[in-house]
Design goal:
Shape: elongated
Largest sheet: 6 strands, mixed
Number of strands: 23
Structural class: alpha/beta
Strand content: 15-25%
Number of helices: 25
Oligomer: single chain
Strand order of the largest sheet: 7-8-6-9-10-11
Length: 700
């Protein structure tokens, strides 16, 4: 057996040739004989006898050197092969026992060979596809056709996290080096596979690293702000002797809730708190949807008005001050959306929780007076004012724009209103201004003209919308440094940045109501023309459905102010009567309505032949609420290759939360959304699935 092995070894030796500089070193003694030739020739010329002796010695030396070279060459080569074989065995043993998991795959992903460490991780996987072991390794990861280098993939296997690295090994390299490290059986498998290259796989265990990273992340500080939304109003609704008890109960609720999560709560003012918790508890707060919101509302010691709170948390800021800034932005969003909710700002992401309560109107007008004075100071520093509402404008957007127009003209400013599409809802009122010689010909402009008009001395006022993607001309928002936002819709994560003045009050019935209040404090003795009063009054009337919903004391006060300025109810109602086509479309939508989940109504409003089908769809949604037992209505209208969803409720549930899930927004009882690249049937399914999912999760 040993003889056979040696014979095999000698046979294999004949297949190899010594390369590099080693043959030169072996032949060097032979080459040195040539140095003696000049000496021999010279000596022969001088004396033939010594020359002959030296020649004989040279020949004998050459013959002996050549014989030794020929004999030593094979012996030297044999010893080199034996050394390489022994070295390969050591190399094989080292790789086999290497603690780093290592294996070889063929180009199809089959496991050809593994060392002990990799075999311990995934035993009994010989010659199986790697995809059957690790689910998240895709076939394209192992595709090295026409490319070299390494590919890395993160995998999760048996409660461990690994970083897998794959590198290509060419065929020649495999059989001259790596192939000698693996056993013969593996080589035969590779030969059968008929591959052109092998793939080396390394696994780096990152479980401990990820654990430490997670632990480090969980220990980060999260800053939070807690505001009592209606502190003064709630205290006024309870007896004097019980006020301190009400405050104490609320303090106890808040402190006890955050103490459960090892949080620290510091009361900054009578109705403001600062809270610090670890980041690992934020997910728990989110999972229970900030139950403190409902716990505080449940406090009742005879107070007629329930106390609500707003929470803003700042997460994943690079430094502590950034987390505090995030919390401030979050609390502003919560208050801008009407309060009674929690907002978590996690870097660029924003999450909303709560917000199911109906906004409570504030009786004080202090904020309106302050905003009116600030607006006047800002406009006085500019030469021109450009006003715009939302796309596919309605009468509230138009009326509030007219109100700001009158305020700007009162301080002698050049004013333009941006309107691109004249809908049937605003056409009758708009014609009153176009036909009136008292108004400039360029009072209404389109986006292209507005872009040319804006310069450094132009103020841009946005009314009835606070999302930059919804305004008539988003381009001018980046061209002006003086931006004013006046709106009554709840804020979303998409906001108009760098606004110089922002006045957003979700409890207001309409933007026209807010502007009517501002006009009363903007300029003493301001003269509002009757047609302008009609426009603002119409905005309030339409948004409140003839004062039937979302009306408060301040709504009627604003309407009374406009009546004093010359608004005529009969004249307004005549302007906004439906056409026969609109009425038929609305009737068809109501006729075809379907009820699902016993409390939701859904209908499709036909749009063919209608100038403003979205307005008709919104009116149909209002009508569907008159059906007994219906808590919310959704009307879908196809227009301009989009599906417009109008959502309405009686205040029993928040359609705004549903529409926000679809990318829209609005109020608790009035909201909408736009769906693109879907059919009406698909849109209906999307709305239903969203409602079912949110109902199951207890979000509506």
């Amino acid at each position: 057996m040993e003889e056979k092995k040696n014979k095999s070894k000698h046979t294999n030796i004949n297949k190899y040739q010594i390369q590099g500089k080693t043959p030169l070193y072996l032949r060097m003694p032979v080459y040195l004989c040539l140095i003696l030739l000049p000496a021999e020739v010279w000596l022969c010329i001088k004396d033939i006898v010594p020359g002959g002796i030296l020649g004989t010695v040279t020949i004998v030396y050459f013959i002996l050197t050549y014989i030794i070279y020929c004999y030593s060459k094979k012996r030297y080569l044999q010893e080199m092969v034996e050394f390489a074989t022994d070295y390969t065995q050591v190399q094989k043993r080292l790789i086999k026992d290497l603690e780093l998991p290592y294996g070889l795959l063929d180009k199809t992903g089959r496991i050809l060979w593994t060392n002990k460490s990799l075999a311990e991780i995934m035993p009994d996987t010989g010659f199986k596809p790697i995809f059957s072991v690790f689910d998240n390794i895709q076939e394209d990861v192992l595709d090295f056709t026409g490319q070299d280098g390494e590919k890395k993939v993160e995998i999760h296997y048996n409660n461990h996290y690994y970083k897998a690295e794959f590198s290509r090994i060419s065929v020649d390299e495999s059989f001259s080096g790596t192939h000698s490290v693996i056993d013969g059986e593996t080589a035969e498998k590779y030969d059968d596979a008929g591959g052109e290259y092998l793939i080396a796989m390394y696994l780096f265990d990152e479980t401990e690293i990820k654990r430490l990273l997670k632990e480090n992340s969980e220990q980060k500080m999260v800053a939070g702000l807690i505001y009592l939304d209606n502190y003064d109003d709630a205290l006024q609704s309870v007896e004097d002797v019980r006020r301190s008890l009400l405050i104490a109960l609320i303090d106890r609720k808040i402190n006890k809730y955050f103490a459960t999560y090892n949080g620290v709560v510091k009361k900054m003012e009578k109705d403001k708190y600062f809270v610090i918790i670890k980041q690992k508890y934020v997910s728990l707060l989110q999972s229970n949807k900030f139950s403190i919101l409902d716990e505080v509302k449940a406090v009742n010691i005879g107070n007629e008005m329930a106390v609500t709170i707003s929470i803003g948390l700042g997460v994943n800021g690079e430094e502590y001050p950034q987390n505090c800034e995030y919390s401030r932005i979050a609390i502003d969003l919560a208050l801008g959306r009407g309060g009674d909710q929690a907002v978590v700002k996690d870097g660029e992401k924003i999450y909303f929780y709560g917000g199911k309560s109906k906004q409570v109107e504030k009786n004080t007008r202090v904020k309106a007076r302050v905003k009116a004075h600030a607006l006047r100071e800002l406009l006085e520093t500019k030469d021109k004012v450009i006003i715009m509402g939302h796309k596919i404008g309605d009468i509230d957007s138009f009326g509030s724009a007219i109100g700001i127009y009158r305020a700007s003209k009162a301080i002698n400013k050049k004013v333009h209103i941006v309107i691109n599409e004249i809908t049937t809802s605003i056409r009758p009122m708009m014609e009153k201004f176009i036909e009136n010689d008292e108004y400039e010909d360029d009072i209404f402009v389109k986006s292209e003209q507005a872009v040319e008009l804006v310069d450094a001395n132009t103020a841009v006022v946005v009314v009835d919308v606070n999302r930059p993607s919804y305004v008539e001309c988003p381009e001018i928002l980046n061209k002006s440094k003086a931006i004013v936002v006046l709106d009554h819709h709840r804020q979303s994560s998409e906001v108009i940045e760098n606004a110089s003045l922002s006045y957003i009050e979700p409890y207001a019935s309409s933007a026209s109501e807010m502007v009517a209040e501002i006009l009363q404090y903007f300029y003493d003795g301001i003269k509002i023309r009757s047609v302008e009063a009609d426009a603002m009054y119409a905005g309030i009337m339409i948004d409140t459905n003839n004062f039937a919903k979302k009306t408060g004391v301040r709504t009627f006060e604003a309407a009374a102010f406009l009546r004093k300025c010359g608004a005529d109810v009969t004249r307004v109602r005549k302007l906004f009567r439906d056409t026969m086509d609109d009425y038929r479309a609305k009737a068809e939508a109501i006729r075809s309505a379907e009820v699902f989940n016993d409390v939701y109504a859904m209908a499709v409003c036909p749009s063919e032949g209608l100038d403003s089908p979205t307005v008709v769809g919104a009116q149909a949604a209002d009508e569907l609420l008159n059906i007994r037992g219906i808590k919310a209505a959704f009307v879908l209208t196809e227009h301009n290759n989009k599906i417009y969803v109008s959502a309405r409720s009686m205040g029993e549930l928040s359609v705004q939360l549903i529409m926000e899930r679809l990318g829209g927004g609005g109020h608790l009882d009035t909201a909408g959304a736009q769906l693109e690249n879907v059919s009406v049937g698909e849109a209906k399914k999307i709305v239903k699935d969203t409602i079912d999912a949110m109902t199951s999760a207890g979000e509506v």
